[in-house]
Amino acid sequence: MKQITLTVSAGKRLIGKAVAVHPAVQEKLKSGIVAIIAGTTNGYVAEEILKSIRQEKDFDRRHFFRGITLPPSKPTDETGRLPEQKFPGDVIIVDGVWQKGKTIFDVIEEMNEGDIVIKGANAVNIEKKKAGILIGHPKAGTIGIILPAVVGRRLRLIIPVGLEKRVCSDIDNLAGKINSPGTSGPRLFPVSGEIITEIEAISILTGAKAELLAAGGVSGAEGSIWLAVEGTDKEVTEAEKVIGSVSKEPNFCV
Predict the structure, then answer these.
(1) Residue 43 C-alpha from the chain's centroid
(2) Distance CA 225, CA 6 (A)
(3) DSSP 3-state of 246
(4) How far apart are CA 106 and CA 12, in angstroms?
(5) Which of 2, 3, 10 is closest to 164 using CA atoms?
(6) How far apart are CA 200 and CA 51, in angstroms?
């Protein structure tokens, strides 16, 4: 068993690499639709997927989000956007070709069974495999149009989310409180799908098993996680190699 540590940005890069090699994603990149919804973690996912199809040119993840959480010294508007933000659109890939400038709203009606939507989250309960998405839009934003298609047409929903967003409480119960009349601030939308944290990413990339054992840090390591990684000698060695390749990922900046 090996113990490793990952910063938040290194975890995002690791998750991005794992989603990019996910068998279902690779299949739909050949024929079908892969929709990567804008978000900070999904910026890394989009980079890795676009690299895999050699179409990463012109992609910039610095404004690849609709809403973002920043320190009080860097205010956002009521929906979490930056005042000067130039939204580039989601990354929509149809039959292996990036449809630049399009959003999920442009293609959701064209998506069919097995097509993939990749949507980030703001909370994750790793024990119950449940995620939560903060909502600033009165019609529930992108997840509000995604879920009917996921259920109605059996789209595949993949949820990349870092362990720094873990919560211990039941997300359905939290949503019941946060969404009640008279409560201020964003709403919380509980959602189920294929959740991919750093733990699942290590398994996808190497076959090794990982378990969260500690967290925290300072001087740029805030939100970092400690993982215990075990498996065969080959799996653990491969995990060390993959983690080493992302360990010095710079912190995300806007």
Answers:
(1) 8
(2) 5
(3) helix
(4) 27
(5) 10
(6) 21
- 3-state secondary structure (DSSP) of residue 7: coil
Residue (of 231, 166, 217) closest to 6 by Cα position: 217
Burial of 44: CB neighbours in 10 Å, binned 0-12, 13-18, 19+:
buried
Residues 117/159, Cβ–Cβ less than 8 Å: no
Query: Could you give the C-alpha distances from 189 to 6, 171, 172, 193, 203, in angstroms and in order?
Result: 28, 9, 8, 13, 27
pLDDT tens for 12-68 read 999 999 999 999 999 999 999 999 999 999 999 999 999 999 999 999 998 898 877
Domains of the chain: 10-197 (3.40.50)
- Please give the biggest Cα pair distance in the chain: 55
| CA gap 159, 28 in Å, rounded | 16
pLDDT tens, 108-167?
999 999 999 999 999 999 999 999 999 988 888 999 999 999 999 999 999 999 999 999
Radius of gyration of the chain from its Cα atoms, rounded to whole angstroms: 18
**Are the C-beta atoms of 104 and 141 separated by less than 8 Å?**
no
Position 83 scores a pLDDT of: 66
Strand pairing partners for 166? 124
